[in-house]
Specification:
six-stranded mixed β-sheet; 7 helices; Molybdenum Cofactor Biosythetic Enzyme, Chain A; 4 domains; Molybdopterin biosynthesis moea protein, domain 2; 28 strands; alpha/beta; transferase; Molybdopterin biosynthesis moeA protein, domain 3
Length: 413
């Protein structure tokens, strides 16, 4: 049988990052940059105040204390977005708001809380500063965030919310990214019925197409549902031929050794497809190859086996097509709180829960582990990995776990 790592390597070797497209900024959120983004301006573009207070010269208040404040003459006010304030000289200050340009001659800002203001007539004429301040305090320099000519976001950056904000600060209304892969999804089997009609004896609902479509969407792709094909050669062929303009085909069912598992026959006739026996549990039978120029991943029909196999092979393939530098699956090390057997010498992906307790991660299996028990996946936040060389795992063993949603549980940092 083929090892899990070797199977994943073959899948990844068969796909490439998709061609770049130019998208509006918000449509590119979550996608991967296909270009270096170089700034054509300093951000911020001018020196400005980081606080509400008084802009002044630090040297003028070098000896200021609460008991002996230093009085300065107020020569003007500055608010954000209202143009340049008046310049200051020795012994002078400008009342300033956050974001306003710094007056010429000022090198620091003292907060309102550290001053006493005095009015003579319709405006404040003097301010008493009760603390010595350093030059540069509470001042944001031009280019403090971004320098003109700098590579701000390199190719391969995932455009998370902060990156979208940076692009907006650079006046980028559009950006070049690797487009989302379109993934055709086909379920097979005489017993499989899509949503809508009541089930007759011996029939089951088509959950796989919807599980896989949700996984595709969660992984950054666009699912294209092709429905259900009965165990008829021509029907399977017809469904596959409907899959136009897709970047990946995913089927479920029909790849084992049963008499009615016709998908493998159709795939081998229609393209270059290898049948695999993968050392993985749940699941084992898989197919991988091409139908024309489109890669195809044939998954087992049992719901949990299809889920686990997609996470191990389909999700990394989509991440590579999206342009991720590392298409791998987030993992961490955890201590098992309860044991679990591993019959069959396959790499066992056990549905489980992982959480932080004190200074360590701990994990334990959850729910029934049969390959048809999909509800156990809904209760899990991880897959606990039992190596193929283990016959069982014991309480206290350290294992690797895969995070199902890629986020550390419990808000852990």
């Amino acid at each position: 049988m083929l090892g899990v790592d070797a199977a994943r390597e073959q899948v990844l070797a068969a796909v490439r990052p998709l061609p770049p497209v130019e998208l509006p900024l918000l449509d590119a959120a979550g996608l991967v940059l296909a270009e270096d983004v170089v700034s054509d301006a300093d951000i911020p573009p001018f020196r400005n105040s980081a606080m509400d207070g008084y802009a002044l010269r630090a040297a003028d208040v070098a000896g200021a204390t609460a008991e002996r404040p230093v009085r300065l003459t107020v020569v003007g006010e500055a608010a954000a977005g209202t143009g340049l304030p008046p310049a200051i000289g020795p012994g002078q200050a400008v009342r300033i708001m956050t974001g306003a340009p710094m007056p010429e001659g000022a090198d620091t800002v003292v907060r309102f809380e550290e001053t006493d203001e005095f009015d003579t007539g319709p405006r404040r004429s003097e301010v008493a500063v009760r603390r010595a301040v350093r030059a540069g305090e509470n001042v944001r320099e031009a280019g403090e965030d971004v320098r003109a000519g700098a590579v701000v976001l390199p190719r391969g950056t995932v455009l998370r919310p902060a990156a979208i904000g940076v692009l907006a600060s650079l006046n980028r209304a559009t950006v070049r990214v690797h487009r989302r892969p379109r993934v055709g999804i086909l379920s097979t089997g005489d017993e499989v019925v899509d949503l809508g009609p009541p089930l007759r004896p011996g029939q089951i609902r088509n959950s796989n197409s919807y599980t896989l479509a949700a996984l595709v969407r969660e992984s950054g792709g666009e699912p294209v549902l092709l429905g259900v094909a009965r165990d008829r050669t021509e029907e399977i062929r017809a469904k596959l031929r409907q899959a136009e303009d897709v970047d990946l085909l995913v089927t479920s069912g029909g790849v084992s050794i049963g008499d009615f598992d016709l998908v493998k026959q159709v795939l081998q006739a229609e393209g270059e497809v290898a049948l695999w026996q993968v050392r993985i549990k749940p699941g084992k039978p898989m197919a991988f190859g091409r139908i024309g120029s489109v890669p195809l991943l044939g998954l087992p029909g049992n719901p949990v086996a299809a889920f686990v196999a997609f996470v191990q092979f389909g999700r990394p393939a989509l991440r590579k097509m999206l342009g991720y530098r590392d298409p791998g699956i987030p993992t961490l090390r955890a201590r098992l709180l309860s044991g679990h057997e591993n019959r069959g010498r396959r790499r066992h992906f056990v549905r489980g829960i992982v959480e932080r307790r004190g200074n360590e991660w701990v994990a334990w299996p959850c729910g029934l582990q049969g390959s048809g028990v999909l509800t156990s996946v809904t209760a899990a936040n991880c897959l606990i990995i039992l190596p193929e060389t283990w016959d069982s795992a014991e309480p206290g063993d350290e294992v690797e776990v895969q995070l199902l949603d890629g986020v550390l549980p419990g808000g852990a940092a």
